[in-house]
Design goal:
Blueprint lengths: L5 E8 L5 E8 L6 H12 L18 E4 L2 E4 L5 H4 L4 E5 L6 E3 L2 E2 L2 H9 L22 H7 L9 H5 L1 H5 L6 H11 L7 H8 L13 H5 L6 H17 L4
Parallel strand pairs: 1-5
Antiparallel strand pairs: 1-2, 3-4, 3-5, 6-7
């Protein structure tokens, strides 16, 4: 790839009522979307607002919408997503836009709180450390969801969130599933109760967009299906 090649990059500027601004960026081998945004901020427009931190796919803070799809930008190479030398970069959908590529993630984390996403200890620091069988069915189920980095990509990809802003969303429900399967948690019934309402797990339409776009290859759709089963079982037994 020649260093003289350029990318035509449309980047969202402003707030909810903003518009796209076009920049021309040198195209390089092994260039990521985050490299492109950083080039624009450093070389062309220092006022461009965006988030990033680790740059190695661990923190999730650099997530944006690239050519209409939610992605983590530090690990997405331009060669994979550019179309005829063009890119369109926008903030994640389903969250309010603060400015440019920065969204307000308050609704995302507030739904974590509503889904009781915090571990409830069943022991104190003075008790012996719990021994959990790594081969147990519950531990295996929890293992599949604990690598979530809270990037918000699944939330931005979810059509149900777009239709129903009360819906808890894939990340919050995935977190609830890990806690329901954690034998050390003292309020597993409480976690089920929190996700059993109209805006909880049963609102999921199983489109699997969350699983399709998750950069960590998690499967929130499967976690939500598990919550559906467990909440129904608990309700039939009078536990909810």
């Amino acid at each position: 790839m020649s260093e003289n090649d350029t990318l035509s990059v449309d980047i969202w500027r402003g707030g909810e009522d903003g518009s796209f601004q076009t920049f021309h960026v040198p195209q390089r081998d092994h260039q990521t979307i985050l490299d492109v945004v950083t080039y624009v901020q450093k070389k062309l427009d220092p006022a461009l607002a965006y988030r990033f931190a680790c740059r190695v796919g661990m923190c999730g803070s650099c997530a944006m919408t690239v050519n209409g799809e939610p992605r983590w930008t530090c690990r997405t190479h331009v060669s994979r997503v550019a179309r005829d030398g063009k890119l369109t970069i926008a903030p994640l959908r389903n969250m309010p836009v603060i400015r440019d590529l920065v969204t307000d993630m308050t609704p995302f984390f507030e739904k974590w709180r509503r889904a009781t996403g915090s571990f409830v200890p069943s022991a104190t620091r003075h008790d012996p450390m719990a021994s959990v069988d790594p081969a147990s069915a519950e531990r295996t189920a929890a293992d599949e969801g604990i690598e979530c980095i809270n990037c918000g990509i699944c939330y931005a990809a979810c059509d149900v969130v777009a239709w129903n802003l009360d819906y808890l969303g894939p990340a919050a429900l995935n977190r609830a599933w890990t806690l329901v399967n954690d034998e050390r948690d003292a309020d597993r019934t409480g976690h089920l109760r929190a996700v059993a309402g109209d805006a909880g797990c049963h609102a999921c339409h199983t489109h699997q967009s969350c699983s399709t776009y998750c950069p960590k290859a998690l499967n929130p759709t499967a976690a939500i299906a598990g919550l559906k089963r467990r909440t129904v079982e608990a309700a039939l037994k009078g536990g909810l």
